[in-house]
Structure formats: structure tokens, C-alpha cells
Specification:
alpha+beta; Glycosyltransferase; Beta-galactosidase, Chain A, domain 5; twelve-stranded antiparallel beta sheet; five-stranded antiparallel beta sheet; 20 helices; disordered N terminus; disordered C terminus; Alginate lyase family protein
Length: 743
């Protein structure tokens, strides 16, 4: 093939009808033969429609040009199919990844241009794999119970097959019979048999198995081998106790929340949605996109909702830089839009700036070109967890629009082996920034210098430990004793989730993270005219059978401006917080004496100030620390934290308010609103309820009553500071500035 430019390719797309006809329209004498070879993941008529319209819509045309540049560069460099040798991120790993991407892209380019050279490129590369693959045993750097063949993980082999089989489907009928038979047998059948022949992976309810069943099922459709499809749908025993349908039923809640959290929902979305699309094309009678009230389409919406500023909430084993532009969600948005016509999804596609080279990508590109996009409605919601929606949930509270305030309360179940020990943890976003943070995973994906790109030892010793999160730690031990299998069976109990114009509230209880300890947390996002921005109220009540040490960390992002309490500095000695369970990774820079008085800490982040006022009903010590201790390989990020510690109490209540305020403009050298508008916070306890009171600058007050029992018909009474608060139901807000109760 000559070295045509993207412009020549674009012109070629206009001149290609004769080529396409010869490639995709069989003669009458070859109909039977061609019917068993015609593409099935994208049909020939769909490819023809795309070919006719690809230049009409800029987003799709740009995608074709990018694919052409990438494939041409690889064609000019020559085919390289190396013997597997390296870990993730190494040369052979990355080359096999480039190869499956090129097979996929070249297949689409063949259909869009009619140029046989693209089909020949796919054929020649796959013939090289036909020589190599039968000779392979377990990968020399193999990981896990079942190492891969091309890659060190079976997971990556599955990804190779999901991607490559789509490109092969597009060119299969353009390959000579002998080569096609060799490729069918020595590459695709062998790979499908390898994946389906390992039930300990294939029959799991887990994202690794999702990739494996999708790869096998899509290969089955392309090779017209129903046994592969049936095993993919129903498990190796074909009894429905495993396989794709069981995974859809078990891994997603009725709201579309994925058990392992947003980061892995992003990753698993590709095989779920791509295989579902193949099922819809080939077995439309199954109604796969209607299954469980359209849960796979709900999953796309839920994933977008689980983001802020273009990045996913980094809970569980998450890497912070994964967001809405990830290629898995490009596929999800395109296929979901094709199924629903939901114009809100188009605004996400516009933000991504990418589409699939597929009929779904054509629909998205056309709709965007015709101005049909509508803003995505980021909204407060409770995403229930568990297959029946009864195992906790992710509470998302939002005010101020897409880049305003977002409070995330993590009341979900464990999240399997990728879950962290952080029940009733929280994150807060404001002004486009991560303010109250979650560490996510200790991992540098595919960077060989960092343990080959896998999870680092510090993922276990720090990132997964409870002290690395914003929730209660008892006696310096992590939740469930650090046993994820124990945690998997024990989910928080949601108590409240309610939304009004100026108050959004979520509450949940955790009973079994520690033996003999129960803790309940309520978090509120509320606005008030006397406050510059909405604030977060936090109320955590812990009840134990015996006196204990209770630690409540707060991990935040920013530069400390003011420490509103007396603390002894320890910057020269930097003692460790503790010896194990993540405590060994924290230096302590300052520490106060125990006190029951409210304290404050103010920091600055991207031109906005944040003041956190905090206290507890028992005397507590306040400590300021930083992560990164005991880290000789420099694997951990250095991040600040605040720790409240109560010693020797069986029960106590922590409470606080986080207030965004003011503005610092470094360019103009101006500061305004650097002082908090909240004078103090107070807490009062009744027989079965709590009241938090914010005393605002100027004499106004806001009080929030929260009952132990969220039942709507239960009455409650709390008194303190000469006042009484009465209400019925789980919660009530009282604004005393107007003399009116507000709910």
C-alpha cells in the first residue's frame, strides 16, 4: 500500500463504492459460502452506511483519520509479533497491545475504504500469531492462578481477543480460505478454548471473567460456533450458574452501580457493553438491553454520575487519572446513545471528543453535528449496591451545578478483592477540585520501574487500610481485621437519603466492622444565604461495649493557612503515628493536648479557603500528619491529614463542619473572605437524637436535628443552650434567623 496522506484517504472514501461492492457483495454462486463469512459484529449494510457517511461528520472523519495514521505507521514499520517476555508496560506487552489495536482499526479501515491492503495486513499479522500462539505455554512472568499466554495475566489475553476479533470479523470474508482456516483454528479457537477451559477464571463473578466470557462469546458469533456463545452466556457447564447473564445479575445493582466501584465499573463496562451489543445484533430475541429493567444502560448513566470534573470518584483500588474520556466509556456512551437516543449522553461524547468506528459512533457523530446534545444532568442520588439493591449504597449529594459542590458518602459493600476497608468513608469536591480526598490505589499502571505496573506493596500496607480513609478506626485496627472476605459479607445499613432545595442528607450505620462496636454517620450538604458556599455537616456517633481508642482521620488537599488550636510541633523528630495497619506510613508533625473544645483548621486550594471546625463529646487530641513514612522506594504520595483521637471511652460522638469560603487571587494580589462565616459549632444530644447548631457571623443560626430512628412517624426532642427542638421523622432543619422551621 502506498504512503497516502489522510487527505488522500478522505478522497478515497468518496471513490470507494466499486471497491466496497466487490468486497462486501457476493455473487449468486457464492451466497452460501459468503453467508458464513459475512461480518456479524457490524453487518455489511451497516458498514456500507458508514462508508457513505464517514466524511460527512467531523468526529467520525477524525476518528477514521487517526486510525489510518496509526495503522499506516505500523504497516510501514513491518509486522512485529514477539515472543512474550515482559511484565505489564514492558516491550512485548505493549507490542501485543499495539497489535490488537491495529487489527481492530485496520478491519474498520478496510470496510470504510475497500482497500484490500488493510485486510492483507490483518491477515499477515494474524498468520504470525497462528505461528506463535500454539507454541506458547504460561507466560514467563505469569501472574495469578492462571497466567496468560500472550500477556502475564489471562485478563490481558481476554482483552486482546475482545479487540482483535472485532477487526477480524470485518475482514474475514476478504481473506483467502487457507489463511482463514489457519487463523480460525490456530488463533481464535485456541484462544477461546484457553479462556473457556479455565473455569476457575471463566466462571467467576468478577471483571476478569467478564472479559473472558465476552471474548469467547464474540469469537463464537464470528466463527459461527454456538458452543462458545452458550458457554459465554451460561458458564462452562451451561447451567446459568455462571457466565455473562449471571454476571449481569450479580455484579450490578438495580441502579446500575457496579460492585467493585466506579474505577472498575469503567474497566468492566467495555466487555459488558460490547458483548451485549454483539448479542443484540445476533440474538435480538434475548432483549439483552432490556434485561433487568435495562440495567446495562443504567450502568452507563451511573458511571457518569460517579464522577466530578471529568474524573471518576477514586474509591477502592482506583487510579486517580481515570475519567470520562477513557476508551471504555467512549464505547459505553456510543452504544447507550444508540439504544436510548438520550441526548444528555451526547454532551459526554462531545467532552470525550472521540467515537467508535461503528454504527453507534456514526449515530453519535451525526447527532453532535446536528446540534442535538443536551447537558448531562449531574444530580444528587443514592446508587444502591448489591444485586437486589439491599447492600448499602453510594450516596452522592450535589449543589451548584457540574463543578459546584459534591459530597460522596461511601456506604457500599466491600467491592470484592479490590475493595478498601473504609465503611462510611467520604469525599468532597468543590470549585473543580478534590478537597477531602481518597488515596485510591498505590499503583503506577504499566510503569515497569514501579513493580512492573502492578499494585505496590503499599497498596496493602497503606491504601487499603482504614487509616488511609476518612472514617472511624478502632484500636489502630482496620475494618474487619483487614479481611476482605469477611467484609464482603457485611454491608452498611442506609438510614436516610433525602433531598430538598437547601438541604441534602445521607446517613448509614455500620455494625460489624469491629466486634462490639457500632457506628452511625450522617452527612449533610446545606446552603444558607449567610454562607458563601454550601457547607458539609458531619456527625459520627460510635457506641462500643468496652473503652477503646477511636481515631477519625481527615485527608485533605491544600496548603494549611491557619491551625486553630494549640499544638506542639514535631517537625524535627517526625514521630510515626504507629507501627502497623497503615499507621507506620504516617509522620506526625504537630499534636495537641486532649480537649473537648471545638477546634479549626484552614487550608487554601486553588484560590479558595476551607475551614474545618471539629470537636467530639469526649476529650480528643488533634494531630496533623503526612503520608509517606517507611517508604524506601518512594512509592507513596506525600499528602496531609488531620487526625482526631479519643482514648479510653466506650462511646463518643465526633462532629464537624467543612466550609468553603473566600477567594485568593495571586495574579491581582487580592484576598477576600479569608475568614470563616461560621463563629462556632455546637452539639446537643437527646434521648434518641442529635442536634448540630451552626452559629453564623451576624447572629444567625442553623440547627439540624438527626434522629437515631429514621421512621417518619417517630417524634423527637432535644434541648441545649436554653433551646428546645421538636420534630417528627428522621431529620429536620431549623433556621432561627427567620423564626421559621425549614425542612
Amino acid at each position: 500500500m502506498n504512503n497516502a496522506s489522510p487527505l488522500i484517504l478522505a478522497l478515497g472514501l468518496l471513490l470507494a463504492p466499486v471497491c466496497i461492492a466487490s468486497a462486501a457483495t457476493p455473487s449468486s454462486s457464492a451466497v452460501a459460502r459468503q453467508d458464513s463469512l459475512a461480518p456479524v459484529l457490524v453487518t455489511a449494510p451497516q458498514w456500507e452506511q458508514m462508508r457513505q457517511q464517514v466524511r460527512r461528520y467531523p468526529l467520525l472523519a477524525g476518528e477514521a483519520q487517526r486510525a489510518e495514521r496509526r495503522v499506516r505507521a505500523m504497516m510501514e514499520a513491518g509486522i512485529d509479533v514477539p515472543a512474550p517476555r515482559d511484565k505489564g508496560g514492558g516491550y512485548t506487552h505493549e507490542q501485543h497491545k499495539r497489535n490488537y489495536q491495529a487489527i481492530h482499526a485496520a478491519g474498520a479501515l478496510y470496510r470504510l475504504s475497500g482497500d484490500q491492503a488493510y485486510a492483507d495486513f490483518v491477515r499477515d499479522m494474524l498468520l504470525r500469531y497462528a505461528d506463535l500462539y500454539p507454541t506458547l505455554g504460561p507466560h514467563p512472568q505469569g501472574r495469578g492462578q492462571i497466567p496468560g499466554r500472550l500477556f502475564w495475566q489471562t485478563l490481558n489475553d481476554s482483552v486482546w481477543l475482545v479487540t482483535a476479533v472485532q477487526g477480524y470479523d470485518a475482514v474475514r470474508e476478504a481473506i483467502d480460505p487457507a489463511s482463514r482456516e489457519r487463523i480460525d483454528t490456530q488463533v481464535f479457537r485456541r484462544m477461546a478454548e484457553f479462556l473457556a477451559g479455565a473455569p476457575e477464571n471463566f466462571d467467576k463473578i468478577h471483571n476478569h471473567a467478564t472479559w473472558a466470557v465476552a471474548a469467547t462469546g464474540m469469537t463464537g458469533y464470528v466463527l459461527r460456533d454456538r458452543s462458545y456463545v452458550d458457554r459465554a452466556l451460561m458458564g462452562t457447564q451451561r447451567d446459568g450458574e455462571a457466565g455473562f447473564l449471571k454476571q449481569v445479575d450479580q455484579l450490578f445493582s438495580p441502579d446500575g452501580y457496579y460492585e467493585e466501584g466506579p474505577y472498575y465499573q469503567r474497566y468492566a463496562l467495555a466487555p459488558f457493553i460490547l458483548f451485549a451489543n454483539a448479542i443484540e445484533r445476533n440474538d435480538p430475541q434475548r432483549g439483552i438491553f432490556r434485561h433487568r429493567d435495562g440495567v446495562l444502560l443504567k450502568a452507563v448513566d451511573a458511571l457518569v454520575q460517579s464522577s466530578y470534573g471529568g474524573y471518576f470518584f477514586p474509591i477502592n483500588d482506583a487510579i486517580l487519572d481515570k475519567g470520562l474520556d477513557t476508551e471504555e466509556l467512549v464505547a459505553g456512551i456510543g452504544i447507550a446513545y444508540a439504544q436510548t437516543g438520550d441526548a444528555r449522553l451526547l454532551s459526554i461524547a462531545e467532552q470525550q471528543g472521540r467515537v467508535l468506528l461503528s454504527p453507534e459512533g456514526l449515530r453519535v457523530a451525526r447527532a453532535l453535528a446536528e446540534g442535538e446534545a443536551r447537558p448531562f444532568d449531574y444530580r444528587p442520588q443514592l446508587l444502591r449496591d448489591g444485586p437486589d439493591g439491599t447492600e448499602g449504597g453510594l450516596a452522592i449529594l450535589r449543589m451548584g451545578g457540574e463543578n459546584g459542590q459534591t459530597l460522596v458518602m461511601k456506604n457500599t459493600k466491600q467491592g470484592m478483592g479490590h475493595g478498601h476497608f473504609d465503611k462510611l468513608n467520604w469525599l468532597f469536591y468543590d470549585n473543580g477540585q478534590r478537597v477531602v480526598t481518597d488515596y485510591g490505589a498505590a499503583r503506577f499502571l504499566n510503569i515497569e520501574a514501579k513493580a512492573g505496573g502492578i499494585y505496590l506493596p503499599e497498596n496493602s500496607s497503606w491504601a487499603r487500610q482504614t487509616i488511609a480513609h476518612n472514617t472511624l478506626v478502632v484500636n489502630e485496627q482496620s475494618h474487619f481485621g483487614g479481611d476482605w472476605k469477611k467484609g464482603q459479607a457485611l454491608a452498611p445499613t442506609p438510614l436516610l437519603f433525602d433531598i430538598t432545595d437547601d438541604t441534602q442528607i445521607a446517613s448509614a450505620r455500620m455494625d460489624d466492622a469491629y466486634a462490639g462496636v457500632r457506628f452511625t454517620r450522617t452527612q449533610v450538604l446545606l446552603s444558607h444565604p449567610a454562607l458563601g458556599e454550601p457547607v458539609v455537616l458531619d456527625l459520627l456517633r460510635v457506641e462500643g461495649d468496652e473503652p477503646a481508642r477511636y481515631d477519625l482521620p481527615l485527608h485533605f488537599n491544600g496548603h494549611i493557612m491557619d491551625v486553630g488550636f494549640e499544638a506542639r510541633s514535631a517537625v524535627t523528630t517526625r514521630p510515626l503515628l504507629g507501627k502497623a495497619n497503615g499507621y507506620q506510613h504516617v509522620w506526625i508533625d504537630a499534636s495537641s493536648e486532649p480537649s473537648a473544645d471545638a477546634r479549626s483548621l484552614t487550608w487554601l486550594l486553588d484560590g479558595r479557603f476551607y475551614t474545618y471546625r471539629f470537636a467530639s463529646t469526649a476529650p480528643s487530641r488533634a494531630m496533623i500528619g503526612e503520608s509517606g513514612a517507611n517508604d524506601p522506594a518512594f512509592n507513596l504520595r506525600r499528602e496531609p491529614m488531620l487526625l482526631q483521637r479519643v482514648d479510653g471511652q466506650a462511646s463518643t460522638t465526633f462532629y464537624g463542619v467543612l466550609e468553603p469560603h473566600g477567594r485568593y487571587d495571586g495574579t491581582a494580589e487580592t484576598v477576600r473572605g479569608a475568614n470563616s462565616r461560621i463563629d462556632r459549632i455546637a452539639h446537643h444530644r437527646g434521648a434518641d437524637a442529635d442536634v448540630l447548631v451552626l452559629h453564623l457571623d451576624g447572629g444567625k443560626t442553623v440547627a439540624l436535628g438527626v434522629a437515631d430512628d429514621p421512621a417518619a412517624d417517630a417524634a423527637h426532642e432535644v434541648s441545649g443552650d436554653g433551646q428546645q427542638w421538636h420534630w417528627q421523622g428522621g431529620w429536620k432543619r431549623f433556621d432561627t434567623s427567620t423564626g421559621e422551621d425549614v425542612k
